[in-house]
Design brief:
This protein is of the alpha+beta class. It has 3 helices and 3 strands. It starts with 6 loop residues before the first helix and ends with a helix.
């Protein structure tokens, strides 16, 4: 049974979800805060770069759908309350943003 789904694999699958304002994916930005993988379901907690992100509903749904496609199981998503800051970005990703 080589079809084991991992957190690392899920995070890689979520790299297809790109923030349209910033042009970087949700993993690079550090928006994926927690993932839970069970045999029959998945759950993702993510945050936005700003509480007033106009793309939040679309990004949440794209992320949920990408996770569900990878896991092959019903997946839920929740928006965490943690405040985002640039230190949450992947190492080296802040140089891609051009603001730091």
């Amino acid at each position: 049974m080589d079809n084991i789904k991992t957190e690392e694999g899920l995070r890689e699958a979520l790299r297809v979800v790109v923030d349209p304002e910033i042009g970087m994916n949700v993993v690079e930005l550090g928006l994926i805060r927690k993932v839970e993988i069970e045999a029959d379901r998945g759950h993702v907690t993510m945050i936005m770069t700003t509480p007033f992100c106009p793309y939040a509903p679309a990004l949440l749904e794209q992320t949920r759908r990408a996770a569900q496609d990878y896991l092959g199981a019903p997946t839920t998503i929740e928006m965490g309350l943690e405040m985002w800051d640039p230190t949450m970005m992947e190492d080296g990703a802040d140089g891609d943003w051009g603001l730091f």
